[in-house]
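re: the backbone from monday

yeah here it is again, tokenized this time
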């Protein structure tokens, strides 16, 4: 790959030994030869895709009771994590000579190419800002580590401030499409306001663009046309207040006003409680693609979605930008069986020819061997979740070979990741070079031993 292309790609540059598809906007990623024009075989949310219905069998530990059993589990999980880190190094070193991984359902063998690589300035982990500088959680207690971002999430203010941190490679934000076909930035399925003491809520996708933009502060004015409220997890409706507010915005505005050096992780947002027809999905995705194709230029962009069929369709509609599958990673049960474990997510990616997985971090830490399976399947693996705001938990993922983390504590975690260095694995026979690396401190080991048993024993 030429030096010119590498310069354009910035933090998303990939291994030079791979054959890439380079388009006019300078973004490149591995060729996967999607089946354009093929028949769409999506399933209803309650059904299984072909080859995606089987469950991952979890081993049960029986090494005693109480504290002894927890110590045994912690030791086994720590050993698995260490082996995962070592195994990934070996897999990376031999990627060019390893045989192709066959996908589910007897499909053709996938090309053996590494996925696009996130990270910059020599690191192997990229940091992404969650909805910009972090999500807002109304009613969060003072001093809480999650949900207390000063800026309103998913706004130009929040996304722009994330771009100001050189260590931040990309921002994640949520895109929906209004009734009149405009892609807008908003997370929740419903938007709430209050008038004369009465709370009103409307589905975001039922709004025209003009009405959507009338909520919250207005551009060029301190006047608020419609106050914004938000529903908490326990059902309460509270004022949605932030220290520094900003107006709602469209996808086009984000492309136009946020630094072009910043990568965009565009989450394709669909309501879990709705069964979408193919034409509805395609209409929304085409509207989003129209804006991306027109305004992305040289910006690194990739898509992600919890909706398996939306991810599949986005992969079929275009071959320019990578598509990743979002999954709870087994941390919660979902009626769509494709979303219930890391192994299910891997099968979805292989079946639909996706580029990788964005998993809830606890799902990966509870099942560290999934990192190796994803690598063997040529899939990039990123994580999200509250544990990503604890730098020690991020450090463990760094050692395991996770390619990127989406975080709310943007400044703190990006600074920590910038200072990470690899441990010296050569003493265990797994080192890949002679460089000296930082080992675990006693504090970090103590954190691991406390953290891992809790993750393993957590119920769905």
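seq for it, each position gets an aa:
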């Amino acid at each position: 790959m030429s030096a010119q292309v590498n310069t354009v790609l910035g933090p998303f540059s990939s291994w030079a030994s791979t054959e890439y598809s380079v388009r006019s906007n300078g973004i490149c990623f591995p060729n996967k030869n999607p089946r354009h024009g093929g028949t769409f075989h999506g399933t209803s949310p309650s059904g299984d895709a072909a080859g995606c219905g089987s469950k991952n069998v979890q081993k049960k530990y029986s090494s005693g009771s109480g504290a002894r059993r927890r110590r045994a589990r912690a030791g086994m999980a720590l050993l698995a994590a260490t082996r995962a880190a070592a195994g990934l190094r070996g897999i990376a070193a031999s990627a060019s000579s390893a045989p192709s991984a066959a996908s589910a359902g007897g499909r053709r063998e996938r090309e053996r190419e590494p996925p696009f690589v996130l990270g910059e300035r020599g690191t192997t982990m990229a940091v992404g800002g969650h909805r910009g500088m972090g999500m807002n959680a109304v009613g969060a207690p003072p001093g809480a580590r999650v949900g207390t971002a000063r800026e309103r999430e998913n706004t130009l203010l929040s996304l722009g401030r994330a771009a100001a941190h050189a260590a931040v490679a990309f921002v994640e934000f949520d895109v929906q499409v209004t009734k009149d076909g405009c892609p807008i930035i908003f997370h929740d399925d419903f938007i709430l306001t209050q008038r004369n003491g009465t709370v009103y809520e409307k589905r975001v996708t039922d709004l025209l663009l003009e009405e959507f933009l009338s909520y919250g502060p207005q551009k060029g004015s301190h006047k608020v046309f419609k106050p914004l409220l938000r529903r908490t997890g326990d059902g309460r409706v509270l004022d949605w207040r932030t220290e520094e507010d900003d107006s709602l915005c469209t996808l086009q505005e984000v492309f136009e006003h946020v630094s072009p050096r910043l990568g965009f992780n565009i989450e394709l947002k669909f309501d879990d409680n709705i069964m979408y027809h193919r034409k509805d999905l395609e209409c929304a995705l085409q509207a989003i693609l129209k804006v991306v194709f027109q305004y992305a230029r040289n910006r690194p962009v990739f898509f992600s979605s919890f909706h398996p069929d939306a991810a599949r369709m986005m992969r079929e509609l275009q071959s320019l930008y990578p598509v990743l599958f979002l999954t709870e990673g087994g941390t919660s049960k979902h009626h769509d069986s494709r979303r219930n474990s890391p192994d299910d997510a891997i099968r979805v990616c292989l079946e639909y020819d996706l580029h990788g997985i964005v998993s809830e971090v606890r799902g990966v830490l509870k099942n560290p061997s999934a990192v190796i399976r994803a690598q063997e399947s040529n899939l990039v693996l990123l994580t999200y979740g509250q544990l990503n705001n604890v730098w020690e938990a991020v450090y463990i993922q760094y050692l395991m070979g996770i390619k990127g983390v989406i975080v709310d504590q943007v400044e703190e975690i990006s600074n920590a990741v910038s200072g990470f260095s690899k441990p010296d694995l050569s003493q265990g026979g797994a080192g890949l070079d002679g460089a000296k690396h930082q080992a675990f401190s006693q504090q970090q080991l103590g954190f691991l031993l406390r953290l891992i048993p809790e993750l393993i024993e957590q119920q769905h």
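The chain has 13 helices and 15 strands. The longest strand covers residues 168-177.
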